[in-house]
Write a structure and sequence with these properties.
mainly alpha, Tetracycline Repressor, domain 2
Length: about 200
């Protein structure tokens, strides 16, 4: 089967023969990720989809509702990709490298923390909770992979939930840019290798 090359969590670009709601969701996801929550309007989504604003409002009552669904579906896609990477028979370190590279590749141009912080003020508690539940499902996949590796003796016994959150936290460091917008490492492969090595040595000790 041919490897899927689109960034982790991003929807496919082909919209032919897709239900209108799915098209709206895919387009909105791209717009939110590329421009930010505050900048994107329901008009923008409608124009990009080639439908009327009334059509967008038929499926989503507000921009906050559309954003929430877009982010939840994106995180579910990420969860499926993580599962695909971590459920192979490769050594855990190799699987972590593949996961890390895919994650870093997908978020290289996105300030995730700033992106979510900007939107949170406009979302209800229920909408925030929906996104939190979807986020937790992503961590659960990594946590289960660590538990399995501990049971097999591949890594020492430890706290798998802490291990899962620590790994994702390290990946966020990979998106760091200094005042000149220069990253810590010169290439994606070097960044991935260094982060996974740092994490792996911590697990080993």
């Amino acid at each position: 089967m041919q490897r899927e090359n689109r960034p982790l969590g991003r929807p496919k670009q082909e919209h032919q023969e897709k239900p209108t709601k799915n098209v709206i969701l895919d387009v909105a996801t791209q717009l939110f990720l590329n421009k930010s929550y505050q900048v994107v309007s329901m008009d923008d989504v409608a124009i990009e989809c080639g439908v009327t604003k009334a059509t967008v409002y038929y499926y989503y009552k507000s921009k906050a509702e559309l954003f929430t669904d877009a982010m939840v579906q994106m995180m579910l896609r990420i969860k499926d990709r993580i599962f695909g990477i971590l459920s192979t028979d490769k050594p855990l370190r190799d699987r972590l490298f593949e996961f890390a590279k895919a994650h870093l590749q997908a978020t290289v141009d996105i300030d995730i923390n700033g992106f979510m912080k900007e939107a949170k003020a406009s979302l209800s508690e229920e909408q925030l909770l929906q996104m939190k539940h979807a986020e937790e499902k992503m961590y659960e996949i990594l946590e289960k992979a660590l538990i399995s590796a501990m049971e097999k003796g591949e890594i020492p016994q430890g706290h798998p939930r802490l291990g899962a959150h620590a790994f994702v936290a390290l990946l966020k460091v990979g998106n760091y840019r200094d005042v000149n917008q220069k990253p810590i490492f010169g290439s994606l492969d070097e960044m991935t290798e260094q982060i996974v090595d740092f994490y792996w040595n911590g697990l080993g000790n």
